[in-house]
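Quick one:
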Amino acid sequence: MFMVIIGVAAGAVMSVFIKASSASADPMIQKQALAIAESLLEEARMMPFTFCDPDDDNASTATAAVIGPTGCAATVETIGPEPGETRYSAATPFDNVNDYNNFVMPAGEIRDITGAQIPQLAAYGATITVTAPTAPNFGGSDARGIANAPGNMQWLLITVTVTGPNGISVTLDGIRTLYAPTI
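Output:
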C-alpha cells in the first residue's frame, strides 16, 4: 500500500515538474521580444525630428512645416520615408523619426542597423508605426499644452510591435517631441 501511495505521489510531482519545465522557455521568448521592441523604439526615438527633411538647408532653423522664410527651403517632412529612403541604405538612409512609419521586418527578417540579418531571431518579426495624433491620449492625464495641428507636428507617437514564437506579441509605445525650434 505504501508503494502505491508513493508511486501516485511521485507521478503527480513529476507531472508538475514536466509542465513547469516546458513553460520555462516562455519568459525567455517574452524577454527577447521585449529586447527587440526596446531596441527598435530607441533607434527610432534617437532620430532627428525636424519640420524639414534633415537634408534641407533650413532644417535646423525652420519654425514651421512650410516652404518659405520661416520654414523649409525645399522639402517639408511628412509621415513616412522620402522616395528611395530605407533603413539599410548607406546613400539614402532614414534620416528622421517619421521615416519609420509602416516599417516592417517580417518573421525571419530581423536585421541590425547595417542590414545584416540576425539568424538567431528568425522566429521574430517587427512593425513600427509613427503617427502625429491630433488629440493626445496619455491614459487620462492632460496633454500639458502639447498639441498637433495639421502641418505643425509637435510630437509623434511611435508604436513598435514584435511577434514571436508561440503567439507572443509585445507592443511598446514611445513619444518623440519636437524641441525648439527643431532637434
